[in-house]
Design brief:
It holds the Pfam family ABC_tran. The protein is α/β, with parallel strands linked by helices and 216 residues long. The chain has 2 domains: 133 residues, Rossmann fold, CATH 3.40.50.300; 69 residues. Helix content is 31%, strand content 23%. It has a 5-stranded antiparallel sheet with strand order 2-1-4-5-6, with helices on one face. A 5-stranded parallel sheet has the order 7-8-9-3-10, with helices on both faces. Helix 2 runs parallel beside helix 4, helix 3 crosses helix 4 and helix 4 packs parallel to helix 5. The longest helix has 14 residues. The protein is globular, with a radius of gyration of 17 Å. The termini are far apart. Bound molecules: adenosine-5'-triphosphate. The site of adenosine-5'-triphosphate has 12 residues, from helix 1.
């Protein structure tokens, strides 16, 4: 399946955020800007967790939201669970009672991927792909921070998202662990449409095809 392109424009007056940008199908755009410039706000609106005052976002042929006026309800508002968007933050947010493999399988189940055996096999393949072959039975508290973030990457990607949102995905990692995981992210998102928020120039160089510079 080919990744869709993304087009977004939005304003959030209370947060003093106003922006517009496009991402080509299968490309990664990096959002760079100082604290408070609206990077997280933009990701929240795309993910479906924040309704902007005005704006529109199109993912391929799908209208994610269409908010013509702050005084009116959105004309179109696709709920977060129906957007087919994968969100990865700096915290892995793995379920502590589930193994690494079960966490990945959970992401697939939520995305409607049927068949427990198929999910299990796919989860094993994802563990392999993110460099964790053989560690599928470990619970999050038996993994290092870097290994847990690799599981989180696999959980997001295994669900087959149409758009991937990366919110400072390497910020919580040791400087020693970050480069290898950056390489994993670059490999697994190569053909996907991605919006990346980061403060790190290394992330932009390794992951982004284009950069949006945001100002306060
Ligand atoms: N829950 C909130 N309610 C009101 N204003 C908020 C809220 N969260 C953030 N803001 C404000 O909205 C603006 C944009 O914040 P946002 O978190 O999107 O910026 P950011 O670029 O992601 O910053 P950072 O790099 O610090 O994460 C800031 O002025 C911030 O103070």
């Amino acid at each position: 399946m080919t990744a869709p392109g993304l087009s977004v424009e939005l304003t959030v007056a209370q947060r003093n955020v106003q922006l517009a940008f496009e991402v080509n199908a299968g490309a990664t755009v990096g959002l760079l800007g100082p604290n408070g410039s609206g990077k997280t706000t933009t990701l929240l609106a795309l993910a479906g967790w924040l309704i902007p005052d005005t704006g529109r976002a199109y993912l391929g042929d799908t209208t994610l939201f269409n908010c013509p006026s702050p005084a009116k309800r959105p004309v179109t508002w696709v709920p977060a669970k129906d957007r087919g968007i994968g969100y990865l933050s700096q915290d892995h947010h793995l379920f502590p009672h589930l193994s690494a493999r079960e966490n990945i399988m959970y992401g697939m189940e939520r995305a409607g991927i049927t068949g427990r055996k198929a999910r299990r096999e796919a989860a094993e393949a994802w563990l392999d792909r993110v460099g964790l072959a053989g560690l599928g039975k470990r619970k999050p508290d038996q993994l290092s921070g870097g290994q847990a973030q690799r599981v989180a990457i696999a959980r997001v990607l295994a669900s087959g998202p149409r758009l991937v949102l990366l919110d400072e995905p390497l910020a919580a990692l040791d400087v020693d662990a970050a480069p290898a995981i950056r390489d994993v992210l670059a490999e697994v998102t190569r053909d996907l449409t991605v919006v990346l928020v980061t403060h790190h120039h290394d992330d932009v160089v390794a992951l982004a095809d284009e950069v949006v510079h945001m100002r306060r």
